[in-house]
Amino acid sequence: MPQPLILIPARMAATRLPGKPLADIGGVPMIVQVLHRAREAALGRVAVATDSAEIAAAVSAHGGEVVMTRADHASGSDRIFEAMEKLDGAAAHPVVINLQGDFPTIRPGHIRAVLSPLDDPRIPIATLAAEIHTEEEATNPNVVKVIGSKLDGNRLRALYFTRATAPYGDGPRYHHIGLYAYRREALARFVALPPSPLELREKLEQLRAIEAGMRIDVTVVDEVPRGVDTPADLETARRVLAP
C-alpha cells in the first residue's frame, strides 16, 4: 500500500483540561509527544491540523509539519478532511490516518496495526479495539464498546458502537480505540453525510458511517492507549513518558 498521510487534529478548547495539547509531558508539549509516536510508526508523512497559532508554534519549534484549519469544525474528522485537501490536493496519499492529539502513550505498532484491514480493497474505514478485562470498564459509559463479527485472526467487522454494556451474555467485549484509517474517498463521503440519528443518540460519530452502510473493520490489539482528558490522566502520561 502506498504511504498513508497521518494527520493529528488538535485544538485548545478542551473543557476538562484547558490547553491540554501544550501540557508538558517529558519536557515537551503533549502534541509533540503524539507527533513523536506518529513518526516512530515510520509510515510516512505526518502533520498536525489545528486552528491554534500556539499549537502551530509548538509543533514547528520541534520540526513538525503544521496545517492551519478553520476554527468552526464540529469534529476532528472534519478538520482532517480540510487538512488532507490542503496538504495533498494531488491525492498522493490514498489513505489518511486520524490520530487523536491526546494519545501521547500510543504505541507506534498500534498506529501501524490500524492499516491492516485496508489490505482488503472492500474496506473503506478501519479502527482499533482491545478486549475488556474488568467489570468497571465493561459498565463505564465513558468506555465506548464495539460490537463486531469475528473475522480471521485479530479482526472484527464492526456492527455497532455503544456506550452501554454490550453485547449481552458470556464472551469477550471490546473497548473501542479512537484511531481511524480512511480511504480518501471514504473520508470525503463520511464528512459530507449529515449527523445520523444513532450518532446523535449515542454521541458517537462513527455510527454515522455504520448507518450509511459504510463498512468498518477493527484490528484487535493488546491494550488501550491512555488518552489524556483529566489532570489525573496527565499525571499518568507524565509517569509513563518520564525521561
List low-confidence stretches. none
Count of strand segments: 11
Summarize the helix and strand pattern as letters: EEEHEHEHEHEHEEEHHHEH
What's the assembly state of these chains?
single chain
Please give the domain count: 2
CATH architectural category of the largest domain? Alpha-Beta Complex
Which labels suit this protein?
11 strands; globular; 5-stranded mixed β-barrel; two-stranded antiparallel sheet; Spore Coat Polysaccharide Biosynthesis Protein SpsA, Chain A; 25% strand; 243 residues; 2 domains; 9 helices; alpha/beta
Q: How would you explain this protein's 3D organization?
A:
It contains nine helices and eleven strands. The chain has a five-stranded mixed beta barrel with strand order 7-10-8-9-11. Strands 2-3 form a two-stranded antiparallel ribbon. The termini are far apart. It has two domains: 1-103, Spore Coat Polysaccharide Biosynthesis Protein SpsA, Chain A (Alpha-Beta Complex), CATH 3.90.550.10; 107-224, Spore Coat Polysaccharide Biosynthesis Protein SpsA, Chain A (Alpha-Beta Complex). It is an alpha/beta fold and 243 residues long. Strand 2 (24-25) and strand 3 (28-29) form a beta hairpin. The model has no long low-confidence stretch (mean pLDDT 95).
